[in-house]
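# step 3/5: fold
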Amino acid sequence: MLSLTKRHRLTVVEKARLLVMLSENSLTNQEIADHFACNIRTIQRYRRQYDASGKLFPAYGKTGSNAVRLSPWALEQLKEELVYHPNLYLDKMQWFLAEACQV
């Protein structure tokens, strides 16, 4: 039995298992909830999400509404800046990316 307790993040193996269980329509929500030792409403939410979009979890890299993925060029520029200023604070890094790299 796996445990999906509050704030428990699923491992890659658990995500794959859940995806297979939801795709094979032979198991009920209650059976899946019993297997993962979680609330049936959690499984109902996952099933609705799977039925609507065909996937369970957001794409890798998109962690929030204002998350930005750096381009390789901007990352190299930031690394070069950190060579010259190794004690650069995060707010200064954000300023540098916004001003110098237009990120």
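# step 4/5: annotate
The chain has two domains: 12-53, 61-103.
# step 5/5: archive (pending)
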